[in-house]
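Lay summary. Proteins are chains of building blocks that fold into shapes, and those shapes determine what they do. In this project we predict the shape from the chain. Here is one chain we studied, written as its sequence of building blocks.
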Amino acid sequence: MNKSKGETVIEQLMAELDPESERYRILATAKRFKSSWVELGEKLLRLQTSGGFRDWGYSTFEEYCSREVRIRKPTAEKLTQAYRFLEREEPELLARPTEIKPLPDYRSIALLRQAQNEELPGGAYGKLRAAVMEEDKGHQAVLRQYREVTAERRSEDRLLGYRNALAAARRLRTVLTGLDDLDASIHGNLDQLIARLAELSADPAEGISPQPSKESPTSRREPGSASR
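And here is the predicted shape, written in a compact code that computers can read:
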């Protein structure tokens, strides 16, 4: 099997290191990355915390990951954050022998961690956790479920925005009711805006479609008109 450039570089570095050193062990783990992301995530997290990469000539953790372990910054972040999440939220999984049941994809763990910090609709986080931790769904299936849940939340946020705007427009209409020296078109446009916001916010109080306002000749006059 042909080796990737990254694997070749890692092996060249390993050949120059003491097999008992921490630096060698991290590189060996990186070679097994696909099957042992948890081990690599743990080692990278410990290294990031200790700052030991500086002793090896790297100024930043990101530089070490990209140049030596051959993984990009986003991947390193997902690995370390996913491990930290499991350590804090699912410690029993880390204690479970992986040969009995493989651990979830680190990308799915990263999504679960992200979802925990968001205000998802009721029960959505529990279902997402079950998909990752219990149902062994693949990452693409978990990603689709996450996107559906967050789309639902955005829809709810948008609906709340429409309803807040509707309430504000109604308050404005109340304030303007006694101002009969305003152009009648202002009142008419406001009525149309309220009707449209009511439609968007699914509020039956205003009806479904905007209705033209009925102006009385005395309540809303054109500017410059005089009463007789």
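What the prediction tells us: The radius of gyration is 30 Å.
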